Amino acid sequence: MKLICIGRNYTDHIKELKNEKPTDPVVFLKPDTAILLKKQPFFIPDFSEDVHHEVEVLVKINKVGKHIDKKFAHKYYSEIGLGIDFTARDLQAKLKEKGLPWEKAKAFDGAAVIGNWIAKEGIEDVNNLSFSLEKNNQVVQTGNTSHMLWKIDELIEYVSKYFTLKIGDIIFTGTPAGVGKVVANDKLVGYIEDRQMFSITVK
């Protein structure tokens, strides 16, 4: 399986990091070793002093596809989830300055939180789905999939031009504004609407 991540898919987050608005989706990958094991805490890596949380809606691919047309993309997933794309922001900034890839800042061990899954049939509209992240019982990120620059089906169409999508692949669809630093003993809880999707502690 592979984790396909989309950057800069919410305008407010683009502004927050002072990035340019892209003309195409920004795509990067995380290996399966980046997945944080269930019921395990997230350990801040020793190579970063500024790890940020980025809460994101997830899509799990349920059949093999290549060059998928947007009008058929809905057939390639049946579950929606929520997760965190942890980012070593200080390391990412250094890499970006040098024009180098981001993987060391985005794809390290434990950098991908994958929460519970909801059957798509139980969701009224995947393109109007509210989600949020609480840090120590305070809401720090809120988003709605209606604010995506590229909606889920458009992302599937775009990504499948470059990568064959396989059963079990997960797409991280981008984060809204409100990203911020995590420190030891933080508790992070993610919600889709009012449904708790994950709860992790930081060490």
Automatic annotation (TrEMBL):
Keywords: Metal-binding. It comes from the Bacteria. This is 2-keto-4-pentenoate hydratase/2-oxohepta-3-ene-1,7-dioic acid hydratase in catechol pathway. Pfam families: FAA_hydrolase (PF01557). GO terms for molecular function: acetylpyruvate hydrolase activity; metal ion binding. Transmembrane segments: none annotated. Residues 2-186 form the Fumarylacetoacetase-like C-terminal domain.
